[in-house]
Amino acid sequence: MKMSCCVDYDESLIAKDSYIEMKCINCGHEEKMPSFIYGEEADYLLDIGDDEPPYFQCSNHHKDSLYRKEIQ
């Protein structure tokens, strides 16, 4: 069974204020991620004893370098 790296979700069901700003540390690409996806990954990492913040694959160059954007 082949697993997909992308999560399929209906954007119309997500409140506008429930997105998290993400930024690639390599190329500077910015995008919004639904907060429930970020939260599920953060919870999983805590469950396995990893206290590092979650990071995801940048949609520009497909490297694991997309982190939560720091609030200035």
Helices, strands, pairings?
Elements: E1 19-24, E2 30-34, H1 35-47, E3 56-57, E4 64-68
Antiparallel strand pairs: 1-2, 1-4, 3-4
Brief digest:
The chain has 72 residues and is of the alpha+beta class.
How would you characterize the overall build of this protein?
Helix content is 18%, strand content 25%. The protein is an alpha+beta fold and 72 residues long. A four-stranded antiparallel sheet has the order 2-1-4-3. The protein is globular and about 30 Å long.
This entry's quaternary arrangement is: single chain
Shape: globular
How far apart, in Å, are the first and last alpha carbons?
43 Å
Q: Please mark out the parts with pLDDT under 50 across 5 or more consecutive residues, or reply none.
A: none
How are the strands ordered across the major sheet? 2-1-4-3
Rounded to an integer in angstroms, the radius of gyration calculated over CA atoms is: 13 Å
Helical content class: 10-25%
SSE run: EEHEE
- H/I helix tally: 1
